[in-house]
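Example 3.2
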Amino acid sequence: MLTCKDASQLMSQSFDRRLGLMEKTGLRFHLLICRSCQIAHRQLDFLHWFCQRIAADPEHITSMQPGLTAEAQERILKELHRMQDE
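Structure, written as tokens:
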């Protein structure tokens, strides 16, 4: 029987290499009975998917991030210049 620590290591390793039959079977069994590891597994799957999306199209991901408006940038620059003059 795998511990949660063993299961989390196998989950992580499964993204880098193919798990052996015993490892895969032990992990599946552990995931059937451990709710915490089920949640962790879903989160790792999402992070892996998201990182693949970023690697495939970094421009799309960065364009989704909100930026400062031109007015806000100008206000910040004015304030910085004002602070330098003091």
